[in-house]
Structure formats: structure tokens, C-alpha cells
């Protein structure tokens, strides 16, 4: 049986990006939540829940970018040219956030400055990622296999809205993570904060779900034509069911369920995105096969991916297992 290498590589890249969103999402969410927790000792606990694992989470971002470069060079050149500015802003914000993460543990007199850098880095990086997502869904203008749009095409209402929506999503992931990893007053504060965030996230998902087909007739045709309507209807239904289950878990003050159910919402949103853009890797016109590298190049790099991805998964799972359990005041990274 012949292997469709572009589809295999699309799956690997999609998996890498999804893992990044999930794993770096909740520690970016912790930075977004910092303004709601002004007490220094509680902020220490929040950071200690991710201190042993946060830098390894960004491995998945590197995997996704490197995989795109190796397997789909046309898509890599077009997407990066179109979105250079928000991507560079995102990387600078991630650098500031990483430096602040390490420095604030050692700082005494200037700790408040590093707290601000951590908050700003987390917010700007998250917002930039959401802008990139929205601009990608909006479509990228291409002529003759090259980007033909302007440097500020991404600066439009829909990408800016998806940027704000992702801030809410990552804040929810951060809340769920802290509910699972902390206790006492800090955990109660996260329970209280996560309820309105859940409602806001449901509203933003609904608005994006309406805005996208209204702005793009091809996506509307994909979702609402028969029999596709029946095939895809479980996705929005499951979103509503998951939100109801999440609100119930918060009411019952469950430790693990809020985080798991937020992950389910992320999976469903990711599924909706995949349905909307399939089979294009550069919406609205360049598909996986048109953008793919030579089959020999894809096969060669696939050997490395088959070796490396299980290794990354193994050490990630091991580190999370080693540092499982709740983090209490006075414990953790110093």
C-alpha cells in the first residue's frame, strides 16, 4: 500500500501544533492569570506548578515549524512571509517571558518588574498566536506561488478577535491546571474565576463559528451542505455538552475534571478548524499536495520524525509523571 506522505506529514505537524497549544497553553495561561493573584507567595506557587516542565513544552512549537519547513516548503515561505510581524512579536514575547520566569525567582528588589514582564510576555505571545490563527483562517493572498498581500493583512477585525479569544482559552487552561495542582485559597480563587471564563469562551467559540462561514462562502458550503451538516453537527453539540459538564464540575469543585474538559473544548475547536480549512495548508487555495516537498525529501525526514516524536513524547510523559501531585506554599523551584 502506497503511503500518502503529504497527509502523513500534515498529521505530524497538526499533532505537534496541538501539543504545543495544550502544553504551553496552560503555562502561558498562568502568566495571564497573574494580575488576578497579587499575593507574591501565591504567585510563587503558581509558577512552581510549571517550573520543572515549562521550557520542554515549547519543543512542540519547534517540531511544528521544522516539520512545515521540511515537508511543505511552499507553505512555509508563504505563511511566514504573510505573518512575519505577529510571529516575530510572539517570539520576542516568549523570550521576555522565559527570562522573567527564571529571573523573578532570584530577584528581590526588582521582582515586581519581572512579574510585569512575565504577564506582558504571556499576554502578547498568546494574543499573537491567536492573531496568526485568525489571519490563517481568513486566507492568504497568493499569486504565482508567492505571497501577494500586504505586510498588515493580518491586522483585521477577525484575527484581532481570535487573538482575544485565545487569551480567554489559555486563561481557562491555566485555571484548570491550577485547580488540579494547588489547594486551599488559591484553588478556590481559580474555581471562582473559571466560571465566567467558561461562559466567555463559549460566546467566543459561537461568534467565531458564525463569523467564519459568513465571511467565507466556501466554509459555509463545507459545514451546511448535505450530507456534511449531519456529519459535522456532533462538533457544536459536543461543545455545548462539554461546557455544561465543565460548569457542573466547577460547581462540584472537582480537582481534575475542569482541566480535562477544557482540553476537550480545545480538541473540539481544533477539529472545527481542521474541517473548515481541509485540505488546504494555505487557505483558500493551496492544498497539501501542491505545497509538499519532493517525496524523497519527505520520506527522508519522516525517518527522523518517527524516531524523534516518540522520544519527545516519552520524556514529556516522564517529566509530568515525576512532578505529579499538588504544589504547596514553600515547595518547588528556587
Q: What's the total count of β strands?
A: 4
Tally of contiguous helical segments = 15
Measured as a percent range, the helix fraction is over 70%
Poorly predicted ranges (pLDDT <50, ≥5 residues)?
none
Beta-strand content: under 5%
Series of H and E elements: HHHHHHHEEHHHHHHEEHH
Instruction: Tell me the overall shape.
Output: globular
Q: How many strands, what sense, and barrel or not for the largest sheet?
A: 2 strands, antiparallel
Radius of gyration: 20 Å
Count of domains: 1
CATH class: Mainly Alpha
The CATH architecture category equals Up-down Bundle
Overall pLDDT level: 88
What is the SS-derived class? mainly alpha
The CA-CA distance between the termini, in Å, is: 54 Å
Task: Please state how the strands of the largest beta sheet are arranged side by side.
Answer: 1-2
Summarize the structure.
The protein is mainly α and 334 residues long. The protein is built from 15 helices and 4 strands.
What does this structure look like?
This protein has helices at 5-33, 40-48, 54-57, 59-71, 73-82, 84-106, 111-138, 157-181, 184-215, 217-224, 228-232, 234-251, 257-277, 288-291, 295-322; strands at 142-143, 146-147, 280-282, 286-287. Strand 1 and strand 2 (146-147) form a beta hairpin. 77% of the residues lie in helices and 3% in strands. It contains 15 helices and four strands. The strands form two sheets. The chain has a two-stranded antiparallel ribbon with strand order 1-2. A two-stranded antiparallel sheet has the order 3-4.
Amino acid at each position: 500500500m502506497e503511503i500518502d506522505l503529504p497527509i502523513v506529514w500534515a498529521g505530524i505537524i497538526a499533532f505537534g501544533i496541538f501539543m504545543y497549544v495544550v502544553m504551553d497553553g496552560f503555562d502561558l495561561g498562568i502568566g495571564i492569570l497573574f494580575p488576578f493573584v497579587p499575593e507574591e507567595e501565591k504567585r510563587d506557587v503558581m509558577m512552581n506548578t510549571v517550573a520543572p516542565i515549562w521550557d520542554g513544552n515549547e519543543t512542540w512549537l519547534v517540531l511544528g515549524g521544522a516539520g512545515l519547513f521540511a515537508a511543505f516548503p511552499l507553505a512555509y515561505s508563504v505563511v511566514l512571509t504573510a505573518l512575519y510581524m505577529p510571529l516575530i512579536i510572539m517570539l520576542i514575547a516568549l523570550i521576555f517571558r522565559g527570562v522573567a520566569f527564571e529571573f523573578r525567582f532570584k530577584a528581590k528588589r526588582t521582582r515586581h518588574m519581572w512579574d510585569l514582564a512575565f504577564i506582558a510576555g504571556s499576554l502578547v505571545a498568546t494574543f499573537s498566536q491567536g492573531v496568526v490563527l485568525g489571519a490563517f483562517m481568513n486566507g492568504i493572498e497568493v499569486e504565482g506561488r508567492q505571497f501577494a498581500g500586504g505586510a498588515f493583512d493580518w491586522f483585521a477585525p477577525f484575527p484581532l478577535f481570535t487573538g482575544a479569544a485565545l487569551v480567554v482559552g489559555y486563561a481557562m487552561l491555566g485555571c484548570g491546571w491550577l485547580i488540579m495542582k494547588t489547594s486551599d485559597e488559591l484553588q478556590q480563587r481559580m474555581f471562582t474565576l473559571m466560571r465566567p471564563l467558561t461562559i466567555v469562551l463559549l460566546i467566543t467559540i459561537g461568534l467565531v463559528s458564525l463569523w467564519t462561514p459568513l465571511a467565507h462562502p466556501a466554509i459555509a458550503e463545507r459545514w451546511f451542505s448535505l450530507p456534511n451538516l449531519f456529519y459535522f453537527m456532533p462538533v457544536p453539540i459536543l461543545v455545548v455538552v462539554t461546557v455544561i459538564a465543565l460548569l457542573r464540575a466547577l460547581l462540584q469543585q472537582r480537582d481534575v475534571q475542569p482541566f480535562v474538559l477544557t482540553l476537550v473544548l480545545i480538541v473540539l475547536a481544533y477539529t472545527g478548524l481542521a474541517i473548515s480549512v481541509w485540505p488546504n495548508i494555505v487557505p483558500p487555495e493551496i492544498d497539501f499536495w501542491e505545497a509538499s516537498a519532493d517525496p524523497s525529501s519527505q520520506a527522508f525526514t519522516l525517518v527522523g520524525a518517527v524516531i524523534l516524536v516518540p522520544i519527545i513524547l516519552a520524556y514529556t510523559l516522564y517529566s509530568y509523571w515525576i512532578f505529579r501531585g499538588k504544589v504547596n506554599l514553600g515547595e518547588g523551584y528556587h
